[in-house]
Amino acid sequence: MSSRYTYPEAAAKLRVEETWLRRHIKKLPHSKKGRVVTFSEADLDAVDSLFHYTPATGPLAPPSTASAGAHPLAHLKPLPGRSLRRA
């Protein structure tokens, strides 16, 4: 039988706060028997993949094969200024 982890054990394994697991339990894969909530290794792997973030730019970003073109936010235009009406 595979290992089952309780809230504190799963939080330690995922390196998150136990309260974070409890707050997000409805979105996370888990098993529940009565009031006892447990997480399997597959559940913890799924949680990790659901919330995994890989930066697109910066020093931690994976090397890009695309050439350095225009800035990714260059297409954005500023909003028009607000006019102040005084009565």
TrEMBL record:
Q: Which domain of life is it from?
A: Bacteria
Region Disordered, annotated ranges: 58-87
- A Pfam family (short name) is HTH_17
Please give the InterPro entries that the UniProt record associates with this protein.
HTH_17
Q: Where is the Helix-turn-helix domain?
A: 5-46
Its recorded name reads: Helix-turn-helix domain-containing protein
Query: What's the source species' lineage?
Result: Bacteria, Bacillati, Actinomycetota, Actinomycetes, Kitasatosporales
